[in-house]
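Holo prediction — zinc ion.
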Amino acid sequence: MTLPPIPDAFRWTDESWGPALRCVPLGAIASHLFTTRRLQLSVVTDWWRVADALGVRRILTLTQIHGRGVVVVRRGVSTPRGKPEADILVSDDPEVAIAVRAADCVPLLLADSRNGAVAAVHAGWRGTAAGAATTAVDALGREFGSRPEDLVAAIGPSICSACYEVGSELVDAFAAAGHARHLIARWFVTTPPRRGAVESERPVLRLDVAAANRDQLMLAGVAETNIHMSGLCTAMHLDVLTSFRKEKDLAGRLAGVIRARP
Ligand SMILES: [Zn+2]
């Protein structure tokens, strides 16, 4: 297996199941990783491997519902039971790692360089329209006193705009959610029909969901230089990653996992 090239801020690491992706500046603050398709995550023992890699005994996951609900994990307070319904986890508890799962959606991890608190966010188009990234920054501030300028973010593998053809109803949903028109114009890319194409061929609309999350973090006050994008497309690297668009019900899931600084 050849691992795809990644930006300087990321590195591939060798774990008990195979490769994982880590972000170097984020790793300077908090233990974290993005899993690859080598780890199916369909059995509990796979999660134990991830827990081992991060040095914890428990990982809290969510029943993800494509929204912006937040679950808070607090040091010294009993961790929420089961898999609560939400798409954002924030934590200052180093005893428990927090994880989101995705296959094309954006897995986003955040850490506060000052107080060591962390967040994990699952943002597909619905969560992105709902402002999940911004909500996570707000939640870190509200729960742990985090300041946006102290946050470092890693945007894990997700579907790229070239592979993510969408319908115009998504533009309507983003507009209805209150996003500025110039941002919507930047996030939705229209490819004109090919030259010499038949007349019935219509322009194709695509969504850059990773860029939308980056922009939302910046609007929330996170410095652009502290936002690290893996640039990896889930649909283009099926030997290493997994894509719901490409593989439908056969798609696995990648996890973004992070642990608050002890
Ligand atoms: Zn792609």
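READOUT: The CA atoms of residues 157 and 232 lie 5 Å apart.
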